[in-house]
């Protein structure tokens, strides 16, 4: 039809193409033989073919040798490079051109993994490296490749598909021929892979040709996405389809539903291209140059001639451009350049176009580029999709089979109904289950899952937590949910989410009651170093105050023993603020104010600590440090199956001293026996377990020693699972919300007071008060330095004297220090007050000795006035003009003779 149509439209052309056809019968050897026959015997100038990529390699090499152009409209493998083979023209699109469209679909829906399923031949393997590169660019992992042999039986295909059911990957990319692909999809439906939760994407190897598939095969493709080469509509195309269908039905009346596909359009356009190229050659030489080895040639390949017209013909083909039925036809580097791919969704017996992909704009809903600005992979640019299983929700992961551990003692975390079987779904309860379900609701997409108890046929636990993790590694479970600890050795085989509960490993010991009081309990609030420091500071402050007040205050003078007692008395009575000695110096007042502040804080802290000791229960752990156990060789225990065993091994405990327990009452019994009687002195437990244990045995056990940090509790997924990142983000959202608090109050609410808060608090030590002592000491030392500097300055004349030795000068300074300071206002005031008192006494004595008895009344009034002056003077009124004299000669009133 192509040759007839071409020359009907170009009747003026002087060249005509003559077709020589050979049937390879789909066989590589047959295609090679047909090619040799056409070149050697028919002397053809060009060959349109081969039928597929597997036949192309040998034929292309033959064409290069004979300089005969090979124009293929169906050999799409990227490995058939046109650059190294100038006589090969690909009148179709390279398979590698569609991988960007496939990666754009995957990126639009945010899938993180994909598994390619391809045929094991030249056609299937050629596109895989390009597909890997495209997916790697968008950070999509390929955890597995499924390779199907072209001669694979249904059983072999089924076995391969069963492997995919054990994987968590839901995106499956199929690249194979329609015949093998239809078998694959039929078996996949039987296996259960064409169901809700899966995504199937077909390359153009099937999508371009699925119009030839039976209706029964289409049933297995429901919900499948396909990428195919887009053919723009035109009047010429529609007219040709009508003529082609009419002629096809005449030759094949039984094939009623046959449709023209793009392969036929490329074949039609390839014939047009050759006819146009040949016309450009005009009067070219179409002869063959015979091989020089014809007589001695042992094979047909050695005797092939060389086309004289070949070089000119490939130049003419390379420059041929026209608008064909398939669209723009132009060879670029020996092949057609694709620009648009159409994305379709299989629904019923037909298909629904949901969008397009272009190399410039990415995903678009319609080929209207007026409002587009750049490359996009937005999901909004695609139409509504019906997914496998008649689902309209975007699949993100397949239905998860989740294993849950069985721990009868810690049902608050995971509680499995009794009598559960290994292969039956269960409805577990507990803290971990509620957290997981809340996390699944917080996911950005719907995740379907079922819980399965990790039990044997008897309904008992099938192993330890490590065994459960192994089953996730081997693929029996898609995930594991429970109170599963995150640790380094487990992460070598599986992936953990972020912890939904931070935990640490603690050492549990019994509590001993020290409620009996002793006579020296008042010493316990303070440590020995604080007692010594406080005493030293009391003495030091007393000494400083004595030095500052000795020369100016009578209270700090007298015999040496009196002065020492006064200094200490003053310092210690500040404890109860009962000191009566007056401080005169401003430096002393400065020191005393700061010292009173220190003493106030110290006494209040001491009082609070002593009150706690005397009134609260005296609860103390029997063991306070791990090193005590290591030295004493005491027995310890850990929860059987927990990873505390690894921590115990790291601490180098003797294995003979290590026991295990499974139940609360068993642990309590071991503690009751004691280490000397076959029991234990301590146990290592995860803190949440200890909290539950404490609820049952309230006020009987506590934690001691340092805590050992662990990774916390997390959910388990297979290594490389794309769900881990999304689940971890959802965990963060849940833990930061009020939902987490509700779950904790539901399952882990505390009723027993924390025994660690009832254990007597630590004694007050110097570390808590060193700042106060530092401030007080610096203030006292500064005041002392200022006083000494001032005193020495005033004694500079004594210190400079050269008539006596230095030692005598120092002794003189010390004697001066021991004397009163005559310049002090306290001593001046005392002297003035004493002199005024003596003057008043003299005046009273004079009145009593007067001989004038007629003035008794006046003397009496005068006496009253003077006595009042005496009393007033004794109260401290100063007299500025009176000089105190020696009063030893004043006669006593009793001895005066009237």
Question: Can you walk through the features of this model?
Answer:
This protein is α/β, with parallel strands linked by helices and 898 residues long. The protein is 42% helix and 13% strand. It contains 30 helices and 28 strands. It has an 8-stranded mixed sheet. Strands 22, 23, 24, 25, 26 and 27 form a 6-stranded mixed sheet that branches. Helix 16 packs antiparallel against helix 18 (586-615). The chain is elongated. It starts with a helix and ends in a 24-residue tail after the last helix. Residues 846-898 have low confidence and may be disordered.
Main sheet properties: 8 strands, mixed
Strand content: 5-15%
Specify the overall morphology: elongated
- C-alpha Rg (nearest Å): 53 Å
| Secondary-structure-derived class | alpha/beta
> Which regions have little confidence, pLDDT < 50, spanning 5+ residues?
846-898
Mean pLDDT: 81
Number of strands: 28
Per DSSP, the total helix count is 30
Helix content: 40-55%
**Main sheet: which strands, in order across?**
5-4-6-7-8-14-15-16
Terminal CA distance: 174 Å
């Amino acid at each position: 039809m192509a040759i007839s149509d071409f020359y009907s439209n170009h009747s003026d052309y002087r060249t005509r193409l003559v077709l020589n056809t050979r049937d390879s019968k789909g066989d590589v050897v047959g295609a090679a033989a047909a090619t040799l026959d056409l070149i050697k015997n028919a002397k053809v100038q060009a060959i349109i073919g081969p039928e597929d990529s597997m036949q192309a390699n040998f034929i292309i090499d033959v064409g290069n040798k004979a300089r005969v152009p090979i124009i293929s409209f169906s050999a799409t493998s990227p490995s058939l490079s046109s650059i190294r083979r100038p006589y090969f023209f690909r009148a179709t699109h390279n398979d590698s051109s569609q991988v960007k469209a496939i990666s754009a679909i995957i990126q639009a829906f945010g899938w993180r993994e994909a598994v390619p399923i391809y045929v094991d031949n030249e056609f299937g393997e050629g596109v895989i490296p390009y597909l890997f590169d495209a997916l790697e660019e968008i950070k999509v992992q390929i955890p597995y490749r499924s390779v199907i042999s072209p001669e694979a039986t249904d059983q072999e295909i089924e076995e391969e598909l069963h492997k995919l059911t054990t994987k968590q990957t839901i995106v499956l990319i199929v690249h194979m021929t329609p015949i093998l692909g239809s078998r694959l999809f039929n078996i996949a439906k039987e296996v259960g892979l064409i169901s809700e939760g899966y995504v199937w994407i077909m390359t153009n190897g099937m999508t371009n040709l699925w119009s030839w598939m039976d209706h029964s095969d289409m049933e297995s493709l429901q919900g499948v996405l396909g990428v195919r080469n887009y053919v723009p509509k035109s009047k010429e195309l529609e007219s040709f389809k009508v003529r082609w269908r009419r002629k096809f039905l005449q030759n094949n009346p039984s094939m009623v539903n046959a449709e023209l596909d793009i392969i036929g359009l490329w074949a039609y356009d390839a014939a047009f291209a050759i006819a146009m190229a040949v016309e450009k050659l005009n009067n070219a030489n179409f002869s063959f140059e015979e091989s020089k080895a014809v007589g001695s040639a042992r094979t047909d390949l050695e005797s092939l001639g060389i086309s004289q017209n070949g070089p000119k013909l490939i130049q003419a083909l390379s420059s041929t451009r026209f608008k064909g039925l398939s669209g723009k036809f132009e060879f670029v580097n020996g092949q057609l350049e694709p620009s648009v791919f159409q994305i379709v969704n299989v629904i019923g017996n037909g298909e629904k176009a949901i969008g397009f992909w272009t190399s410039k704009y990415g995903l678009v809903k319609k080929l209207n580029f007026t409002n587009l600005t750049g490359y996009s992979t937005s999901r909004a640019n695609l139409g509504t999709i019906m997914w496998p299983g008649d689902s309209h929700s975007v699949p993100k992961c397949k239905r998860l089979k989740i294993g849950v551990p069985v721990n009868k003692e810690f049902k608050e975390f995971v509680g499995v109904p009794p009598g559960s079987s290994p292969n039956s779904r269960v409805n577990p309860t507990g803290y971990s289950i509620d957290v997981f379900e809340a996390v699944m609701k917080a996911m950005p997409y719907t995740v379907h899952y079922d819980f399965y108890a990790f039990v044997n046929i008897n309904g008992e636990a099938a192993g330890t937590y490590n065994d459960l993790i192994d089953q996730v590694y081997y693929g029996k479970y898609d995930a594991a949910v429970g109170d599963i600890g995150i640790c380094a050795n487990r992460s070598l085989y599986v992936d953990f989410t972020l912890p939904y509960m931070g935990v640490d490993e603690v050492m549990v010991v019994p509590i001993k009651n020290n409620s009996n009081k002793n006579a020296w309990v008042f010493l316990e609030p303070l440590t020995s170093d604080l007692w010594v420091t406080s005493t030293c500071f009391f003495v030091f402050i007393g000494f400083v105050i004595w030095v500052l007040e000795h020369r100016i205050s009578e209270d700090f003078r007298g015999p040496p023993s009196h002065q020492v007692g006064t200094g200490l008395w003053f310092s210690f009575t500040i404890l109860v603020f009962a000191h009566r000695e007056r401080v005169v110096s401003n430096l002393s007042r400065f020191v005393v104010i700061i010292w009173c502040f220190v003493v106030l804080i110290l006494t209040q802290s001491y009082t609070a600590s002593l009150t706690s000791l005397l009134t609260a229960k005296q609860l103390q752990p029997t063991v306070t440090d791990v090193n005590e156990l290591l030295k004493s060789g005491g027995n310890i225990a850990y929860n059987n199956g927990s990873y505390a065993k690894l921590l115990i091994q790291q601490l180098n405990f003797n294995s003979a001293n290590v026991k295990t327990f499974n139940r609360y009452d068993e642990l309590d019994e071991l503690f009751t026996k004691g280490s000397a009687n076959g029991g234990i002195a301590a146990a290592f437990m995860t803190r949440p377990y200890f909290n539950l244990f404490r609820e049952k045995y309230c006020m009987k056990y506590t934690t001691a020693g340092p805590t050992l940090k662990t990774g916390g509790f997390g959910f388990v997924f297979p290594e490389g699972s794309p769900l881990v990142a999304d689940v971890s983000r959802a965990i963060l959202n849940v833990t930061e919300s009020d939902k987490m608090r509700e779950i904790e109050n539901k399952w882990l609410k505390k009723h027993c007071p924390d025994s660690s808060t009832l254990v007597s608090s630590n004694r007050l030590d110097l570390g808590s008060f060193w700042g106060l002592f530092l401030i007080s000491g610096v203030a006292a030392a500064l005041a002392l330095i200022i006083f000494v500097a001032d005193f020495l300055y005033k004694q500079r004349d004594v210190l400079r004297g050269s008539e006596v030795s230095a030692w005598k000068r120092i002794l003189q300074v010390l004697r001066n220090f021991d004397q009163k300071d005559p310049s002090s206002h306290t001593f001046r005031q005392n002297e003035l007050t004493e002199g005024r008192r003596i003057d008043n006494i003299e005046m009273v004595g004079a009145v009593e000795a007067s001989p004038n008895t007629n003035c008794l009344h006046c003397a009496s009034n005068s006496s009253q006035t003077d006595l009042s002056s005496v009393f007033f003077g004794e109260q401290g009124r100063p007299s500025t003009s009176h000089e105190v004299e020696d009063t030893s000669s004043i006669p006593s009133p009793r001895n005066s003779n009237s």
